[in-house]
# Entry
Amino acid sequence: MKELIKKLTDITSPSGNEDLIREAIREEIKEYCDDLKIDRLGNLIAFKHGGGAKIQFAAHMDEIGVIVTYIDDQGFLRFSNVGGLSPFQLLGQRVRFTDGTLGVFGLEKLEQMKDWTLNKMYIDIGATSKEEAEEKVAVGEFGGIIQDFADLGRRVAAKSMDNRVGCAVLIEALKRVQSPRNDLYCTFTVQEEVGLRGAKTSAFAIEPDLGIAVDVTLTGDTPEAEKMAVGLGKGVAIKVKDQSLIAHRRVKELLVRLAKEKKIPYQLEVLTRGGTDSGAIHLTRAGVPSGVISIPTRYVHSPSELIDLEDVEAAVQLVVAVMETPCDPENL
Amino acid sequence: MDLTRFLQELSESSGVSGREEETTVVIEKFFTSGPGKGWITDFRRDRLGNLILRKKGEGGEEAPKIMFAAHQDEIGLIVTEIKEGFLRFSTVGGIDQRVLPGQEVLIHAREEVPGIIGATPPHLQTPDEHEQAIKIEDLVIDTGLSREKAEELISVGDFVSIDRRLISLKNSAVSGKALDDRAGVAVLLQIAEELQKLKHQADVYLVATVQEEVGLRGALTSAYGIIPDLGIAIDVTHGKMPGLSDEDAYELGKGPVVVIGPQVHPKLFTSLQRVAEEKGVKYQVEPSTRPGGTDAFALQIARAGVATALLSIPLRYMHTSVETVFLSDLREAGRLLAEFVVTVDGEFVEGLSCF
# Structure
């Protein structure tokens, strides 16, 4: 599992540019599903037959990043954010564009800290002139922050753990599931970080009976953290509410029941900021009962998002449990 | 029907966004064993919990479909942490946190647990703190339970509703919690009652929508399922009171408010006005340029688009537990909308796409 997470987090694929990560996931799962397709927006949908209800599992494979907006005469790049990117996370970091070009972040001289915004920052790709810069990078090119995978033992940190760890959970579940009792549509969605866009269109096409997103959530267990009753290493989190979704009561109850039956450690999650793919899925067509299986993660949207592998294992077990439990959509 | 009594049942039922079932049952009972027995053709709940009551008209298979949407959910709270027996919480929808201290609440836990919201006593506040509303992070719910018992009964993620009786004030004013938008739901019942006396072509869908307060969610999915020819949302607007400008607020007791704005189809607006004039219904007009705030917006953008209107009930102290409306406005709204239904036929619907 550690190897898989490292492999997936090493890849740069910001929203709208998911080619590399999609190809890596496709390679991982192609032996483990009955059908594999890529829809028009780029969502990767792995189908596995089991009969019964149509369940859409969604893990977004895009990551936050930057987009080049302007190249100045000296060859410095100005950029905008793709998804929720804090300027404070960028100083001292490096960026990799989707073609492999590298750069480092710089900051203008500021009078006061409160002036520190993204538009006071720039990217230095080592160019000495506008012309030289333009040979390597064009306006509109996407990049992602790079950071080495850090193996801390039971815990690991990497960039884009949000949501490559969710992808890894879904991949592992697909590999492990023995006897699916539902029709499974494992969807690796695009463009979640810019507004749940891939989930919205894939759910419209799939018309699922049930939607379950697999994504990261925040924790409240670091020094002076915002109060939140989710802790790292305390099990998979079952979402009750975030800004995009109030989990369907019976879906939440199903997840809790399965966790209890299978003795999977779990915790209940109320996230006061942020949303995830189920927010889009549950509002699809005439409505889809939906929930979320979350992996507690520290330092979300930083270059070092930190998780506990035991929580990941619990998440895999819970996803497999749902896959192997007959779900009657009319009578959950 | 006894409007006061059913508005009271609706207002006092607990139905925080995403957990509307108790309110749904009140409405269902009204139509299965209450005064509304026999008033409608059938009803169903959809997958997100919207309650869809249908009254067929006389237009047969090709009858136009009118959807009325009033949201049954209310703003409330959700438990985020259990700390030494006290509960910390976050909001569901835009509750006014200035009025939270001192409220009585119900925690919908393994069993229903009563509680109160407490805050630091004024004696122990600094002068600075005294000047400001207490932040929601600094409030707690006290249930009186021991730490062990609280942890046994209550979980993170349990929903909390305000516990408040509806009271009658002078004139036809009533005051209570969740009148945004149980007043609208009561108008749905009024429409059903009024329609008993009238003949109409259109099939009428009275929808008590869910999760409006967190983003018009139930209206979006129910409209997708119903595929209405036209939709009218029934919600509340700000009532006049000292401190609000005349432009922002409407008189209580002077009739429902017909909204005009980008979310409203101009022909529906003029039809509602005309029906009101012809039938002698008192009404007020609200120009509203902000379409995002009510189910009307979700109806308008459902599928390939739905001709939509918005009727509002004037209400004072929105998003507090003393929301106040005049019953006369609810009755007039029901009468106006029922009379409007009578005017809708196939030709009317065709006319909606002739600009």
In short: The radius of gyration of chain B is 21 Å.
